[in-house]
């Protein structure tokens, strides 16, 4: 490999990047309408600077939210700012563990959280269930970016069947 | 039998106890007054200088551990922009209490000189002990430093969540518990909390648990 080969390779990005950028810009101009190629991305070019939307407010009304399906981890209806969840301490369990639920009238964590992965019942929360906010999350007032067509099992059951054999 | 004092004690005593021979009374009184103002002012200035966050976080032990943790919490950053500095919570505001705390703080100077917590590992290892000191101090003075800002008179419990309102009414307003019993680790990370029960878990035997009260069974 000669020296000028290497030099050419090194110069390649400098030559290609402006070409690509201009290609993308002209592409969007030529099509006229803004093309959304992903539902997760707002219709802007990656070179544009956009004002980020406001951070939505937390839902902290302390009212339990129904689960959409039985296995859904219940969402957190209260403020969790500055909650410490680490090796030293678990703020959630100071209310939701079995022994403190009477004192604060908080819902107890499910019995499944006391099972290890072999199905053996433990005396305390299983280590694999310790980090609550891996599954249970607080909610905000943000509107979903992506439309959702999920239907609960109840609506599926009550729906008249396609074959007409239903009652 | 009378013991004779040694000469090096007697001579200064004679000087002090005899009337001034060359200096006027006016100079001595006014000069003494002026010197008093200067010394007292200097003392208080130094005292106040050591009572500032800049002084506290001047040591890397405070700057890299507890101050970094504080920055995340609501006592540092919040919507209204009011914030607590180190001495707001850790030094009493009343003068006598402040002096007492400052004298205790000479232990911290010792710790600084001999590097008791001069690494992160040493600090983490000692964290429980240090936290327990602060819990005990706030428990003993009825959470005085919390109450410098958070007063029960100004606390509108109708603006609180239902649970918080009832617990405050039942335990804070009656003086049965104090702030630190429940609100530990609000400005710094907690140490290993093994064996430390949350404030609402201790059963006050004669009046029943908070639970009955929260459920509305106890009138």
TrEMBL record, chain A:
Keywords: Electron transport, Heme, Iron, Metal-binding, Periplasm, Signal, Transport
Keyword Methyltransferase: no
Protein name: Periplasmic nitrate reductase, electron transfer subunit
Signal sequence annotation: 1-23
GO cellular component: periplasmic space
Cellular localization per UniProt: Periplasm
Organism of this sequence: Skermanella aerolata
Chief place of localization: periplasm
Family, as annotated: Belongs to the NapB family.
Superkingdom of the organism of origin: Bacteria
Molecular functions (GO terms): metal ion binding
Function (record text): Electron transfer subunit of the periplasmic nitrate reductase complex NapAB. Receives electrons from the membrane-anchored tetraheme c-type NapC protein and transfers these to NapA subunit, thus allowing electron flow between membrane and periplasm. Essential for periplasmic nitrate reduction with nitrate as the terminal electron acceptor.
GO biological process: anaerobic respiration
Subunit structure: Component of the periplasmic nitrate reductase NapAB complex composed of NapA and NapB.
From TrEMBL, chain B:
Main location as per UniProt: membrane
Residues noted as binding heme 3 in the record, renumbered to the chain: 146, 149-150
Annotated binding of heme 1, by residue: 56, 59, 62, 108
Transmembrane segments: 21-43
Cofactor needs: heme
GO terms classed as biological process: anaerobic respiration; denitrification pathway
Localization per Swiss-Prot or TrEMBL: Cell membrane
InterPro entries from the UniProt entry: Cytochrome_c-type_ET, Multihaem_cyt_sf, NapC/NirT/NrfH, NapC/NirT_cyt_c_N, NapC/NirT_cytc_sf, NO3Rdtase_cyt_c_NapC/NirT
Bilayer topology annotation: Single-pass membrane protein
Sites where the protein binds a menaquinol: 89
Key word Glycoprotein present: no
Binding site for heme 4: 179, 182-183
Residues reported to bind heme 2: 86, 90, 188
UniProt keywords, alphabetically: Cell membrane, Electron transport, Heme, Iron, Membrane, Metal-binding, Transmembrane, Transmembrane helix, Transport
Post-translational modifications reported in the UniProt record: Binds 4 heme groups per subunit.
Cross-referenced Pfam families: Cytochrom_NNT (PF03264)
GO cellular component, one term: plasma membrane
Domain NapC/NirT cytochrome c N-terminal as annotated: residue spans: 20-193
Role noted for this protein: Mediates electron flow from quinones to the NapAB complex.
Family, per entry: Belongs to the NapC/NirT/NrfH family.
Protein name from the UniProt record: Cytochrome c-type protein
């Amino acid at each position: 490999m000669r020296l000028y080969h290497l030099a050419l390779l090194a110069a390649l990005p400098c030559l290609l990047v402006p070409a690509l950028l201009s290609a993308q810009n002209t592409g969007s101009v030529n099509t006229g309408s803004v093309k959304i190629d992903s539902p997760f991305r707002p219709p802007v070019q990656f070179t544009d600077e956009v004002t980020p939307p406001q951070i939505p407010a937390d839902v902290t009304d302390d009212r339990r939210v129904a689960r959409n399906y039985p296995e859904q981890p219940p969402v957190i209806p209260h403020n969790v700012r500055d909650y410490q969840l680490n090796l030293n301490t678990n703020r959630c369990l100071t209310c939701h563990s079995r022994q403190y639920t009477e004192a604060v009238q908080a819902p107890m964590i499910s019995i499944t959280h006391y099972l290890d992965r072999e199905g053996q019942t433990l005396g305390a929360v299983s280590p694999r269930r310790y980090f609550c906010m891996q599954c249970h999350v607080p909610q905000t007032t943000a509107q979903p970016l992506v439309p959702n067509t999920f239907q609960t099992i109840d609506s599926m059951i009550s729906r008249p069947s396609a074959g007409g054999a239903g009652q | 039998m009378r013991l004779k004092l040694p000469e090096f004690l007697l001579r200064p005593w004679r000087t002090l106890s005899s009337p001034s021979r060359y200096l006027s009374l006016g100079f001595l009184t006014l000069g003494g007054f002026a010197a008093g103002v200067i010394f007292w002012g200097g003392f208080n200035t130094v005292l106040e200088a050591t009572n500032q966050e800049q002084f506290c976080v001047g040591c890397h032990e405070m700057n890299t551990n507890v101050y970094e943790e504080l920055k995340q919490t609501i006592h540092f950053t919040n919507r209204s922009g009011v914030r607590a500095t180190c001495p707001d919570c850790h030094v009493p505001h009343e003068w006598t209490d402040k002096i007492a705390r400052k004298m205790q703080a000479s232990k911290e100077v010792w710790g600084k000189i001999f590097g008791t917590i001069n690494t992160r590992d040493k600090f983490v290892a000692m964290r429980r002990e240090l936290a327990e000191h602060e819990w005990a101090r706030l428990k003993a003075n009825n959470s005085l430093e919390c109450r410098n800002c958070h007063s029960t008179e100004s606390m509108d419990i109708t603006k609180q969540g239902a649970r918080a309102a009832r617990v405050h009414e039942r335990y804070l307003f009656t003086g049965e518990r104090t702030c630190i019993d429940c609100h530990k680790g609000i400005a710094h990370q907690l140490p290993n909390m093994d064996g430390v029960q949350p404030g609402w878990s201790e059963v006050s035997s004669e009046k029943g648990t908070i639970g009955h009260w929260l459920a509305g069974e106890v009138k």
